[in-house]
Each structure stands twice: as C-alpha cells, then as structure tokens.
Amino acid sequence: MNRSESALIDGRKLSSELQALATAEQDEGRRRPLVLARLKEVLREGRARAEERLLAGQQGSACARSLSDMMDEIIRATYDVGAHVVYRVDKPSTAERMAVVAVGGYGRGMLAPGSDIDLLFVLPYKQTPWGESVVEFMLYMLWDLGLKVGHATRNVDECIRLSHGDMTIRTAILESRFLWGEEKLFADLEQRFDNEVVKGTGPEFIAAKLAERDERHRRQGASRYLVEPNVKEGKGGLRDLHTLFWIAKYFYRVRSGDALVEAGVFSRSELALFRKAENFLWSVRCHLHFLTGRAEERISFDVQREMAVRLGYTSHPGMKDVERFMKHYFLYAKDVGDLTLIFCSALEEEHAKQTPLLNRLFGVSPRRRRRKIAGTTDFVVEHDRINMADPHVFVRDPVNLIRLFHLADKHDLAFHPDAMKAVTRSLRLIDADVREDKTANRLFLDLLSSRNQPEIVLRRMNEAGVLGRFVPDFGKIVAMMQFNMYHHYTVDEHLIRSIGVLAGIDRGERSQDHPLANSLIATLQDRTVLYVAMLLHDIAKGRPEDHSIAGARVARKLGPRFGLTPAETETVAWLVEHHLLMSMVAQSRDLGDRKTIQDFAAVVQSLERLKLLLILTIADITAVGPGVWNGWKGQLLRTLYYETEPLLTGGHSQISRDKRVAAAKAELDQALAGWPDAERETYLERHYPAYWLRVDLARKIAHAELIREADATGKSLATAVAVRSFEGVTEITVLAPDHPRLLSMIAGACTAGGSNIVDAQIFTTTDGRAIDTIFIAREFETDEEETRRALKVGALIEDALSGSVALPEAIARKAKPRARIKAFTVETRILFDNSWSNQFTVIEASGIDRPGLLYDLTRSISDLNLNIASAHIATFGERAVDVFYVTDLMGRKVTNAGREAGIRRRLAEVFNGAMATEKSPLKKVG
C-alpha cells in the first residue's frame, strides 16, 4: 500500500488508523459512525487537494489517476476494517475468501471526481455469511460516503458464464483490476476469462463495440461539433478512447499505449497525439465535475465561460476566452475521432468485412475485392472503398490528395482506412504549389459543386486535415465555436452542412420545404458561384472586423485561384458581403412598406443576384441547427423575393400609390359580390390606404367577414384564428376598440398563454376600431390541436382586453428567465431610423431575450405616446431583435433629437429589467 509523495492520502496510515478506531470502540452503534466520520474527512480533504493541484496546472490524466488511487486506498482500508475487525474470522475456511476487484471505468485506474465506483466481489465458489457481511459493510460505508457504487458478487464460474452472454459484463471484466483480498482468485478469473471468453471471439466483440459506438453517437447528435458537447459520451469524447482500448485489449491483448505501437496500430507520433488528447479531455472532465459538484458530462453554455477561466484561457482579438477553449476542445475531439476512426476502420476492414458506401445507407451487395477506377491508375476500389494503388501515390503526385476525394464523390465510394491513414501522414505535401495548381483547384471546385454527396466527402476531407491545408482561410475556422445559443455547430461544420443543404436543393430533394429555391436554382446562369459563396460566407468568423466584409476580401483572393472569372469572383464576394441582408430585411422590416423593398432592390440590383441570395440565405439558415428554419421564415423570404422581383425587371413599381389602392379595393369589391351594394360600399371606406397596400386578398376577405359578424351581433371585441401549416405559424386576428396599448395587452396575453409572437400587423379603421393580426409560433403537430390551442390564446386575449384577467400577475408566473440565457451577456442596442420608411420612424431594439420582453417593450412604447403600425419579432438564440414601425399620436415621424434620446433611454431600461408601474388598464369593452 506504499504510495509516492504525490498520493492524495496515505493508505497504510489510513488502514491502521481505522482498524485502531474500530478495535478500540466495541459498541457497534458508535464504532461505525466513528469510522465513517474519519472516511468522510479523508475523502473531503483528498478531493480538495486534488482540485488544488488541478487548478495549479496538474494534468487531467494525473488528477484522474490520483483520484483513483485515493479510492483504492479508501476501499482497501474499508475492507480491512470489515474483514479483519468487525467480521474477523480467526481460522477462515476456504470459502471465507474474497477478491475485491475494480471493473469498468474504475478498473482502468482513472476516476473523475463524480465517477461511479464499479466493484466486483469475486468469491471462491459460493457466498458465505462472512462474505455477505463484509460486502454489505463495505457497500453501506461507501454509499454513506455519498459515492455511487455499482457492484456485483459472483464466483469465477458465474463471471465466465455471464460474460459469454452479456457484452456489458464482458467489457467490465475486460477492464478489471485487482484491488485487495485474495489475489489468487483474481488471477484465476483473468486466466479463465482470456482462455474461455476472449479467445477466438475478437470479431464478435469488435462488431458489438462498433455498433454500440455508432448508437451512442446517434443519441448524442451524430456530430462532434455540437456547441454543448458531452465530454464523456459525445463523438470524439472519452468514451471513444475507451472503445479503442477495449478493442485493443480484447483483440491485441495489450495493456498500455506503448503496446499499441509495438502491435503496429499507431505510430509514435500518433500515440503522442492520442495521449495529449486523452489528457486534455480528462482535464476538462475533472474540472467540470469539480465546478458543478456533480457528475456532469455536458459542457453546457452556463459553465463554458468559467471552465475557460479554470483552464487558463484568455481572450484574443476576435475571439473570447470561452471560444478559444471550445475551439481547442473541438480540435482535440477531432484528433480523437481521426485516431479512433483509423483504428476502428482498420479492424472493421480486417474482421467485419462490411461494405458500406459513403453514408452507409445504400445497402449495396459486395463487389469484387479489388478493381480499377476509370481515368486513374493511382487509385483502386477495395470492397467499395477507394484505396491507393501503391503506397507512393501522394509523394509521386501531391494533387492526388485532392483527387482522392474527388473520385470518392464521383463514384460514391467510402474511404479505405489505409488511404485515410496515408492522407493524414501526408498533409505536409499540400504546399503553395499544390494550392495554386490548376488541376487541384478544378477538382476541388467540381467536388464542391457536386450534386452527389459533397457534404459527406467535404466532412471527411476536413476531418483528415486536407480542407484546412488546401484552403488555409478555412483552416482558421476549423473547430471554431461561437458562444451563443443560436448556432448549434462549429463554424466549419456549419459551412459543410450548408453545402449539404444546397446540394439537396440542387437535386430537387427539398421542394416541399423550399419550393421557390427549388424552382429557381435550375434557372441560374452559374450555379458554381453559389457553391463557392456558400463555402466562404462565414470563413472570416473570429476576426476583429465584420466577418462579412473580411469574408468578401477572402473571396476576392480565392476566386481567381479556384479558376473563377473576374465577374464570377465579384459575384461571390458580393454574396459573402451581403449574405445576412435578405434574412435581416425579411425578418426585421415591414415588407408591406414600399421603401423597404426599394432600398433592398437598390442593394441587390439584378434578378440573378436576387435568386442567388435567396437560395444562399435559405441554405444558411437551415444549416444553423435543428428547428432554426421554419415555414414562417420561408414565407417572409418568398414575400421579399416576390415584392422585389418586379422592381428589378421593370414591373409594377411605377404604378402610383393611388392606383394600387384603387386596384386593391376593386379586387375586394369583386370578392364580396354577395354582399348588398350599400353594405359593401360602406365597408370599402372603413380602411386607410396602408391597409389596402399591405394585406393580401384572402386576409382582407377574412377580416371583412369578422367585422361583419361582430357588427351583426353587436360585439366590439372579437378574435379569429387560422392555422397556417406550411408557414409553421398560427394567425390570430383581434378586432377591438383602438387604444394605444392594444398591442401591448395582446402581447402580454400571449406571454401569459405561453405563446411566442413572431410578427404583428396593426391597422386602424376609419370608425376608430383596430384590427390587429399577430402570428404566433406553432406548437402542436396536428392542425386540430393547434387550432384548440389558438382558440384558448384568443380567449385569453379577449379576457385581458375586457379586464377579467390581471395581466401583470399572469405574466409574472410565466416570465421566469431561462437558465441557459444566464450564461450570456448581450449588448443592448436601440437603433432609431427615419430613412427606412417614408411614413414611419423605425425603432430596432435588440438585447438579451426573456419571457415578457415584447410586452414590456410595447407597453413602454405606448407610454411614450407612440403608435405602433407594425412589429417584427426575431430571436437568434439568446438575442432578441424587435423592430417597431411607429409614429407620434398625430401620425408623424419622430424627428426631435431630445425625444429620440428619451425613447432610446426608456427602451434600454426595459432590457435592463427596469419597468415603470402598470398604468391604467384598458377600459372594459363589451
């Protein structure tokens, strides 16, 4: 039990001390608490010492080993007290023996602060009262220490029999390590396990572990580039290392990394990289457990910043400390992925003889073992995997490092592990000459714009390190994360996924989700520029300057290298510089305001650019992460496209405002032909020009029927709902007496009802009534459920407007900040602009999101004596961007500088949580 001076506790001293305590105190009721109290003190002090060393710079692997060593000593000391004092047997029989064995993760001799303690109590042949008592004593002592203990008590025969039928038990025993007791029992277990279980079953075990790995990856999100990764179970995490060692121990019967080199699995440099990655991941896991005080494995947003500080990261220009930490995390996860992929793929090739294609979805039957590829003598196909024809293909022609991936995409081939290993070892061959080589760039451009599966091949190209070497600007954003809740993936993963979305649109696979983009892409003059712009649109993230402007500069540099003409290069640069424009205008501006469309068209300038920008915007948003794209965003983008197209083609933009109003009236007049003439003529005079220009015919008809029914029944307050399935929103129309705080009350009722408003249009009739239309995000899958929910929200709005519901109290019950948002700080910005609209002052309020924010903003705007004509609500993760088109009470723009400053100050206070007390509510309406 001797340990070096670096040990957290002195095991020999602890065992003697505990046995002395137990021997001196004969009262069972007092003896156990004394032993337990001392163990708690030792455990607390040992963990504190371990955390101190970790914070002082100790490596994570060393911390994990020292924590495991400490637990060894605690378990040994506990066994000694139970077996030699409390249940001492002077002359034990052959059955009164036991081996205490660490299994599973604990068996590897490495523990995180919150790890489970997995124990196997090995018996000679049957359980005895003595053995049962000792095991019970140890387990209850460990449980009372607050440890999570997994345990089993079996004899050797049972261990062998259960291992045959249970892969989990087999893996646990594979990792077993003797702790204390009868060592001969453990030696017997090891020998029989090797001879009776392991021998001859390598392929079976490998197949099971690879299947288990794939399922685990699927559960964790199938990407190692999720921005809240799981350090233990995630792709590229510690469990991937464990899988490698399980297979290595089982098949090669090795117990150390050095033995993997001797077995020819890894080179020395690859083993060094493996250990470096392992050490980093253990550092992260130990810090995470110490920080959270529990066995937390997910590096969530709320701990990332403090983790970065604990690990010693600092901010650099363009990158926060937390972003630098997470970039390093993803780089190490990539290294783990590369190494385990080489290892596991080699075993899969040798033993499982599977024949997957690129994405393992096509189920093609095995072909001949080796065949030629048309057009090349440097590569061949082995079991549907592309491989080198000889070991010197990359040295002989470095362009083959690009050609390999081009051929894989062209012929839909997976990659042979030998080829991938050679690629990772040949990256130095990709130098300036290769980057400027015309053939290499042509092959890359063909791959990038392929209609096959470019996303899959580009991802492999990136993971192998080729993409970052061939396009150094791309290499700078590999593994880069953005510390916000909007982006789900690292920058490089987002770019590659966006290429996949674009290729799907190009193949016609996304016509249901993106009908306009699907029809437009076939009409493009040059689709290649779209793919290049897609790859480069975020390539300048992480720089101090605006990434769109810096990215356009990168595009102008790379365009000629890729073989683009000056005109094509300029188109790519324009798309990169303006890749956020269409999304921003569609989601944050009033598309019914003519000035919005005119300003947007002035930037776009040509119909071809409009098409390219629309398709790029759709692919960009879709690739941000699951659930980010929805039908409502698609509808906004389509509306912006259709409104802008005529201006760029010389259409109806020259028609006067009066003529357009008259045409809209005539259109509705015809649609209401069934109404009496007098009633129809009266109704057509109830709306102001803005209404006629901004509302489509279907909604004009619905509004007319709602108002007509309300008049017939004498109601001054009414609501109507319509589920818009394709757009993913539900429309609620509210008819009520006009009031400056009407929208605020509606927003408050929606908050109280748990609904998220995404857009709002407000119109006033000539007889002093308001007809407001709000769009709330869809919640239920079926239209029936969504309709029922919308009717409840509509009823709540009516109750709020009639004064039967106290909104502040109802909102307070819902307006609890989301825990994840607390991890972020977002600068509050209040933009005030009179140039974005000819009729309205536009206020853009952005800052940290929270429940009830829209209610507070609209309430404050009303208190400031402003009328809201339309509101456009967008949320990007933790950041809310709410845009209001307003006038003063006289219907004019706000032009006074002092008043503008007051409005800015008041709205900024809303984001900071300062709200004035509730003013007088709306008068009750019947």
TrEMBL record:
Q: Which stretches make up the ACT domain? A: 731-813, 842-926
Molecular function terms from GO:
[protein-PII] uridylyltransferase activity; phosphoric diester hydrolase activity
Sequence segments annotated as region (Uridylyltransferase): 1-372
Activity control mechanisms: Uridylyltransferase (UTase) activity is inhibited by glutamine, while glutamine activates uridylyl-removing (UR) activity.
What EC number(s) would the UniProt record show?
2.7.7.59, 3.1.4.-
Please write the reaction equations for the catalytic activity of this protein. [protein-PII]-uridylyl-L-tyrosine + H2O = [protein-PII]-L-tyrosine + UMP + H(+); [protein-PII]-L-tyrosine + UTP = [protein-PII]-uridylyl-L-tyrosine + diphosphate
Looking up SUPFAM superfamilies in the UniProt record yields: ACT-like (SSF55021), Nucleotidyltransferase (SSF81301), Nucleotidyltransferase substrate binding subunit/domain (SSF81593), Poly A polymerase C-terminal region-like (SSF81891)
Task: Name any Gene Ontology BP term.
Answer: regulation of nitrogen utilization
What family is reported? Belongs to the GlnD family.
The protein's matches in PANTHER family, at most eight in alphabetical order, are given as: BIFUNCTIONAL URIDYLYLTRANSFERASE/URIDYLYL-REMOVING ENZYME (PTHR47320), BIFUNCTIONAL URIDYLYLTRANSFERASE_URIDYLYL-REMOVING ENZYME (PTHR47320:SF1)
Q: What does this protein do?
A: Modifies, by uridylylation and deuridylylation, the PII regulatory proteins (GlnB and homologs), in response to the nitrogen status of the cell that GlnD senses through the glutamine level. Under low glutamine levels, catalyzes the conversion of the PII proteins and UTP to PII-UMP and PPi, while under higher glutamine levels, GlnD hydrolyzes PII-UMP to PII and UMP (deuridylylation). Thus, controls uridylylation state and activity of the PII proteins, and plays an important role in the regulation of nitrogen metabolism.
Q: What is known of its domains?
A: Has four distinct domains: an N-terminal nucleotidyltransferase (NT) domain responsible for UTase activity, a central HD domain that encodes UR activity, and two C-terminal ACT domains that seem to have a role in glutamine sensing.
Q: What is this protein called?
A: Bifunctional uridylyltransferase/uridylyl-removing enzyme
This protein's species is: Kaistia soli DSM 19436
